[in-house]
Design a protein that fits this description.
The complex is a heterodimer of chains A (423) and B (347). Chain A has 423 residues and is α+β, with helices and mostly antiparallel strands. Chain A is 13% helix and 30% strand. Chain A folds into 2 domains: 75-289, Sulfite Oxidase, Chain A, domain 2 (Alpha-Beta Complex), CATH 3.90.420.10; 298-420, Immunoglobulin-like, CATH 2.60.40. Chain A has helices at residues 12-28, 39-42, 46-49, 136-139, 169-173, 186-193, 218-221, 388-395; strands spanning 73-74, 85-88, 107-108, 121-126, 132-135, 145-152, 176-185, 201-206, 213-217, 226-231, 234-235, 245-247, 260-266, 281-282, 288-290, 298-303, 315-324, 330-336, 344-345, 347-348, 358-366, 371-379, 408-411, 417-422. Classes of the chains: A alpha+beta (423), B mainly alpha (347). Chain B: Residues 55-143, 243-346 form the Cytochrome c domain.
Chain lengths: 423, 347
């Protein structure tokens, strides 16, 4: 490369802060009028004179350098190390509904392994007529389907039970992604082996060292579960279970077993570590709920939010966010600017789809006063996303999992936002 | 439909007189009994799946100390952020309950199953059935659930009572929550006043995002047309290429779960690595090395670029029986980078 144009590597956030200060003043005066000609227009710029990169410079592309901050992030203190850990999707910086694989959150129990298609085997055994072994190539010969589904970790927003804790939508709500999966219905594979009448559950496990295993009732297994090998049109990433993962629509992410290697038909739940000691929800009286598989309706404003402040001053403002439900399609999202006193119904970018993220917008005008921004999702069952107070009344503070409370962002007159709790 | 498929379809129905379903595609092949035995190791609460065997508390103490204590503590009390396996009795209805095997786990089968299939961390499926019985017995002992002379076996396994066995209810949200939170929600005058009751900034536990952003994403330095002054080489590492050390720091991320290096480095699942280059193998005091490593040390193994690269290229091939649960570094560049990186840490 003969010419390299290198922009000033200001952090995006630093840039935004500067812009916020400038913007607020400039726009308060009404529609901006340029005092002097803009050199970006009047002077030829390097990119308008020289040449850009040829094809093939990057056979598989990554986002342009200016988007370097749109990445997964970890919260160090949450886990003992990064091998058995989780990170967060930068939902504050994304739009639409599909999560690019490269920034979709990761959750491993013994690290992201590299398992080649040639070395891949899927076994189905237990209460079946014929225990079978499939190769990857075998799976590609079954009729396949495409579906968009969200995958949410049951612990998403789990750090917020006791109070407002993490300052950013990425950290409070980023244990979620939404992809278009290509795969074979689990039903097809179960039928191929022949399920015996006493088979009431399937136990699914992964090929990694943790061999994360979960029990799924037969009714769900025969309903909409997918044995998936593509996401967003391309192979799964290793961190998401390449070459094959399970997709369990609407149910907690821990059940979406990665590197799926075995499906066993059983007469009872196995009661594995992940469905007893973890992913059970302790109530105030010390008893714990188990088998809380479905993810209840939930939403969050992704912008403005602490990592995505308002940088343009008063005037037109797009309030945007995501809504989803594990029990069906989102039918409505309401937004409040005053901490829940009054609500306006937001516009859904398109009608909600079952067990998939729905994008909502509230196109509004900001007068520069502070806002306590909230969003409230409703799904096709008529369920309304509860407040944190409502959730705590039923569950106390120790549930860890399944926190689907209404989130509040305090947007200040300078455009910055903060995670808060309100009365 | 091809003749082949018709044939398998017919055969499928024939096999499965009592079946709900029958194979339609004739894909895959029958799983062999040895294959099923190798992968189907799950253990059910009623003891189904347990192999024959036994282990006592004292043996468990030893095996635990050797394989588990580095993360879970000598008394199963947990080290740092790693799981605590003992204690926490009667805390489930308190603020921040402590959930351990003794205070929370409803089934002993889960302990056996998990230790057997997934532990030790980084060296899964390396324990014998008797060792798993012994570890399980020791965890029970650490929780005051059995006496010190207790022996756990496949025969008395289901007799052990777990304190929180009755502490679980099946998801009842459909009864306790959904009716409450269904219906047309309030749109106006929903509250009289709203006050901020808690702020995340006050707590200040959010990772420093700007620091993360400042980290260079591109590994390769971008070509700059105008010559910039070369950074002055660090005197103590003058012999080693700084770029290689930097590359090694990145590769070392793969090692970090078990090894620490640098100021204040401590032994974790693996020994601390300050001064490892040029040092006799197995010489970190207090670290419990594997027999395999001790044997190599007795033969006079010294860690240097050559030996450490050979070890890292294929840990289990180089040292059969090593406790290091690491698949290996295939790339010679990565091996050299690690050697350079580790060389930059003297004792």
């Amino acid at each position: 490369m003969s010419e390299t144009f290198k922009g000033k590597s200001t952090s995006r956030r630093g840039f935004l802060r500067g812009a916020a200060a400038a913007g607020a003043g400039a726009l308060a005066a009404g529609a901006a009028k340029a005092a002097t000609p803009d050199p970006l227009i009047t002077e030829p710029q390097p990119w308008a004179q020289g040449l850009g990169e040829g094809v093939d410079v990057t056979p598989y592309g990554l986002p342009i350098q200016f988007e370097n901050d749109v990445v997964r992030r970890n919260v160090d203190w949450l886990t003992a190390d990064t091998i058995s850990s989780i990170n967060f999707t930068p939902i504050h910086a994304l739009d639409g509904t599909i999560t690019p694989q490269g920034c979709a959150f990761e959750r491993h129990h013994s690290g992201a392994i590299e398992l080649a298609k040639e070395d891949y085997r899927l076994m189905i055994n237990g209460l079946v007529d014929t225990p079978l072994v499939f190769s990857y190539a075998d799976l590609e010969r079954f009729p396949r389907e495409n579906h968009v589904y969200f995958c949410e970790c049951a612990a998403n927003t789990g750090m917020e039970w006791a109070g407002a804790q993490l300052n950013g939508a990425q950290f409070t709500h980023g244990m979620i992604h939404n992809m278009e999966y290509t795969g074979v219905p689990l039903r097809t594979i179960l039928e191929e082996a022949g399920v015996k009448t006493e088979g009431k559950w399937v136990y699914v496990e992964g090929a990694d060292a943790s061999s994360n295993g979960r029990s799924i009732p037969m009714e769900k297994a025969l309903d909409d579960v997918l044995v998936a090998f593509k996401a967003n049109g391309e192979a799964l990433r290793k961190e998401h279970g390449y070459p094959v993962r399970l997709v369990v629509p609407g149910w907690e992410g821990n059940m979406w077993v990665k590197w799926l290697r075995r499906i066993e038909v059983t007469d009872a739940a196995v009661q594995s570590r992940e469905e007893t000691s973890k992913y059970t929800d302790t109530l105030e009286d010390g008893t714990s709920r188990k088998w809380t598989w479905e993810m209840d309706a939930k939403s969050v404003v992704t912008s403005p939010s602490p990592q995505a402040p308002i940088t343009h001053g008063t005037g037109p403002l797009v309030i945007s966010g995501l809504a989803w439900s594990g029990r069906g399609a989102i039918t409505r999202v309401d937004v409040s600017k005053d901490g829940g006193k009054t609500w306006e119904t937001a516009r859904l970018a398109k009608p909600g789809e079952k067990m998939a993220l729905t994008r909502f917008y509230l196109d509004t005008t900001w007068d520069g006063t502070e806002m306590l921004l909230q969003s409230r999702a409703m799904d096709e069952t008529g369920y309304v996303q509860p407040t944190k107070t409502q959730l705590r009344e039923v569950r106390g503070l120790n549930s860890i999992y399944h926190n689907n409370c209404i989130q509040t962002w305090w947007v200040k007159p300078n455009g910055e936002a903060e995670n808060v709790e309100v009365s | 439909m091809s003749k082949f498929l018709k044939f398998t379809l017919a055969a499928g129905f024939a096999i499965s007189a009592t079946a709900v379903f029958a194979g339609e595609f004739g894909l895959g092949r029958p799983a062999l009994p040895e294959e099923i035995a190798a992968w189907d190791v799950k253990v059910m609460p009623d003891g189904r799946g347990l192999p024959e065997g036994s282990g006592d508390v004292w043996t468990g103490d030893e095996v635990f100390s050797e394989n588990c204590a580095v993360c879970h503590g000598d008394f199963a009390e947990g080290v740092g952020n790693w799981p605590k396996l003992a204690g926490g009795w009667d805390t489930l209805d308190h603020e921040d309950p402590l959930k351990t095997v003794g205070s929370y786990w409803p089934y002993l089968s889960t302990v056996w199953d998990y230790v057997n299939r997934s532990m030790p961390f980084g060296n899964a499926q390396s324990l014998s059935a008797d060792e798993v019985y012994a570890i399980t017995a020791y965890i029970l002992y650490s929780n005051n659930l059995v006496d010190e002379d207790f022996t756990l076996s496949h025969e008395n396994f289901t007799e052990v009572e777990m304190p929180n066995a009755d502490g679980f209810i099946v998801d009842d949200r459909a009864e306790t929550e959904y009716p409450k939170w269904t219906g047309e929600p309030c749109m106006e005058n929903c509250k009289e006043e709203v006050k901020i009751t808690m702020r995340a900034r006050v707590l200040d536990v959010t990772p420093d995002v700007e620091e993360a952003e400042a980290a260079p994403v591109e590994a390769e330095p971008v070509a700059v047309a105008v010559a910039e002054p070369e950074p002055a080489p660090e005197p103590e590492v003058a012999a080693v290429d700084p770029a290689l050390i930097e590359a090694g720091e990145k590769v070392f991320k793969k090692c970090k779960a078990c090894h620490q290096v640098g100021e204040g480095a401590k032994d974790r699942a693996g020994p601390q690595l300050n001064g490892v280059m040029g040092r006799a193998a197995g010489s970190v005091e207090g670290f419990k090395y594997s027999k395999a490593l001790k044997a190599k040390a007795d033969e006079g193994l010294v860690w240097n670029e050559e030996t450490i690269s050979a070890f890292l290229a294929n840990p289990r091939g180089y040292m059969k029986g090593t406790k290091m649960g690491f698949a290996g570094l295939k790339s010679e560049e990565d091996q050299a980078a690690i050697a350079a990186y580790l060389s930059s840490f003297a004792d």
